[in-house]
Amino acid sequence: MTAGEIRLVFLTEANRASVASLELAPEQRDFVASNAESLDEADLDEDARPRVVMAGDRVVGFLMYDAPLDDDEARIYRFMIDRASQGKGYGKAALREVLGEIGGLGHIRHVSICYEPENEAARQLYRAAGFVEEGLDEDGEMIADLALAASTGR
Ligand SMILES: CC(C)(COP(=O)(O)OP(=O)(O)OC[C@H]1O[C@@H](n2cnc3c(N)ncnc32)[C@H](O)[C@@H]1OP(=O)(O)O)[C@@H](O)C(=O)NCCC(=O)NCCS
Q1: Is the distance from the beta carbon of residue 94 to the nearest atom of ligand 1 less than 6 Å?
Q2: What per-residue confidence (pLDDT) applies to 7?
Q3: Which residue numbers delimit the N-acetyltransferase domain (predicted)?
Q4: Does position 83 have pLDDT exceeding 60, yes or no?
C-alpha cells in the first residue's frame, strides 16, 4: 500500500469500532486525546468533522476538524495514525487530503493546528505542509497556522 492510496472517509457505524481500536505508542499517548474520547466528542459537537484515514480497505488513522461557516479559519484538532502504520507517509498523505477537502469548502483561508512543543514528528509533518509556528497558547501547546491561498494557490 502506497501513500498515494490514502483517502479519507466519513465516520460511520461500520468503521467506528476500527477507529476506537487504533493505537499509539505509549510515549505518544499524551500528544492527542484517545479516539474513544474523540468519537464521543464527534457525536456531541455538531461542528466536528471527523474523518477516518483509509489505506485501501484498512482503517489506519483518524482526524477531526471544524470549519464554521461564519469563520474563515478551520481548526484541525485531532490527528493520529495507528502505531503499526506510522512512518510510511500515511500521515503526510492524510494531511494533504484533509487540506484539499478544507480548501474545497470555499470559505476557509486559514487552517490552524496545535501540538505539544516536544512532538517532533508533528512539528516536522506540519512544517513540511507549510504551517508556520505562532507560539504557545495558554496551555503550553504550540499553535501553527497555514494560509491556504498562499500554499495551495487557491
Ligand atoms: C504525527 C503522525 C500523525 C505522523 O504520521 P505518520 O504516518 O507516521 O507520518 P509520515 O510517515 O507521513 O511522515 C510525515 C513526516 O512526519 C515527520 N515524522 C514522522 N515521524 C517522525 C518521527 N518519529 N520523528 C520526526 N519526524 C517524524 C517527518 O517529517 C515525515 O516526513 P519525511 O518522511 O518526509 O521526513 C503520527 O506520528 C502520530 O499519529 N503520532 C501520534 C499522535 C500525534 O502526535 N498526533 C499529532 C497531534 S496534533
Answers
A1: no
A2: 97
A3: 6-153
A4: yes
